[in-house]
Amino acid sequence: MAGKEITITAKDGGSFMGYLAAPPGGGKAPGIVVMQEIFGVNAVMREITDWYASQGFWACCPDLFWRIEPGIQITDKTDAEWQQAFGLFQKFDIDKGMEDVAATIDALRGMDECTGKVGAVGYCLGGRLAYHAATRTDADAAVGYYGVGIQDVLDEARNITKPLMLHIASKDGFVPPEAQKAVKDGLAGHNTVVIYEYAEQDHAFARMGGAHYDKVAADTANARTIDFFKTSLA
């Protein structure tokens, strides 16, 4: 079932779009905030959101670039789009973005159809935001795929109290080995954190249709994610 666009109220005024997809039958279910890559709420992110909904969740992908330019929907197929995406990434305010993630969590929790349990999952930029969802929001669980820059904010790890899962690509072109080691070492003492490493995989190995897509690794990571959410959001 195709999703629909909804309006979410920002905590500091204004509003932004969220792409909302319903679970089969549209009944009572937990929620998941799906956090975008650097290409906006594009066709890939909408398909991912639909997929989480098909697994039994109310899934919502918020437009986290709305403060820069609302409605960004670009692809990873041309150099021009990559340059635009990197430009958006550089302008992105993570603090404000996390306020918008928190507002999306609240919006899902406020739905009569939501059980009240809400998780967060993100990819690339969203993978970093998934870590912050665990350190800065009241999300009930969070999953990050190949998050960039987590090694620079490990001081926030002391705030983690809910389950967090990170998927790390061992050959990630945006996260060098020393950064990966710092993340693994820095989170090793947290009993609510689980980290999976995918040998020989590059950044965005789970982006279907992407240059580095690997079906076996993606299926493995996705199965772990769904099991994690079904347990953590029960």
From TrEMBL:
Its EC number is 3.1.-.-. The keyword Hydrolase applies. GO terms for molecular function: hydrolase activity. Keywords: Hydrolase. Pfam families: DLH. The keyword Hydrolase applies. It is an enzyme of class 3 (hydrolase). InterPro entries: AB_hydrolase_fold, Dienelactn_hydro, Dienelactone_hydrolase-like. SUPFAM superfamilies: alpha/beta-Hydrolases (SSF53474). Gene3D superfamilies: alpha/beta hydrolase. Residues 17-232 form the Dienelactone hydrolase domain. This is Dienelactone hydrolase family protein. It comes from Marinibaculum pumilum.
